[in-house]
Amino acid sequence: MSIGGDDLLVQIENEHPKLGQYLRRYVQEAIETVARNTGTSAVGKVPPPEPPESLNVAATGELLEVKVNHAAPIQKGIQYITHISANDPTFSNPTIIDHHGTSRCPPLYRLPANDAAGNPITYHTRTAAQMPGGDPSPWTYGAPVMLTGTTNMTLQAGTGSGTGAANGQQSQVGLGVDIFRPAPAPKRTV
């Protein structure tokens, strides 16, 4: 991704050839290389990657396996984030179960088969891909599954991920959509 400013750089090269050559060959190249190698941009955000094509979800006992199928061209540094939702296909308050880095086959998840009242839980999964310097891709959803164990436990509400929002107020932000999220503050001053 270019840092821009070529018109100004051409003017500098015309007025001060050695300085212009230095800026183009070394400074501009260094800035663009660092941005490219870190999955970021020197100016603005990198575009979201293409979403994963599909998720393979398998369950046995109280183990859940999620495999991410992502054959689109990707850049070094891509990250994957998986959400799991208990009994809620809308993911209104999902558990951000894993930021599994660059792995498309994270470890198995151990989850309760039933809620605290003993009712079976249907688990829904989704995954997004994201570069460190950009927003997440659209989410890819897996098929819902039920586990066959004996553990009774209601999962706590999710607390979000990344820099998107304060605890539990926003999902689908992956690593975050803001560069910085300040600490929560009181809603009003007394």
Q: Overview of this structure, please?
A:
The protein is 17% helix and 22% strand. The chain is α+β, with helices and mostly antiparallel strands and 190 residues long. Among the domains are: 33 residues, no CATH class; 93 residues, Immunoglobulins (Immunoglobulin-like). The longest helix has 22 residues. The radius of gyration is 22 Å and the shape is elongated.
Write the layout of secondary structure elements.
Layout: H1 6-15, H2 17-38, E1 54-60, E2 63-69, E3 79-86, E4 95-99, E5 109-110, E6 122-130, E7 140-141, E8 145-146
Helix pairs in contact: 1-2
- Main sheet overview: 5 strands, antiparallel
Rg on CA atoms, Å: 22 Å
Structural class: alpha+beta
Q: What sort of overall outline do the alpha carbons produce when their principal axes are compared?
A: elongated
Assembly state (oligomeric): single chain
CATH topology of the domain at 54-146: the name is Immunoglobulin-like
Short description:
By secondary structure, the protein is of the alpha+beta class. Helices cover 17% and strands 22% of the residues. Among the domains are: 6-38, no CATH class; 54-146, Immunoglobulins (Immunoglobulin-like, Sandwich).
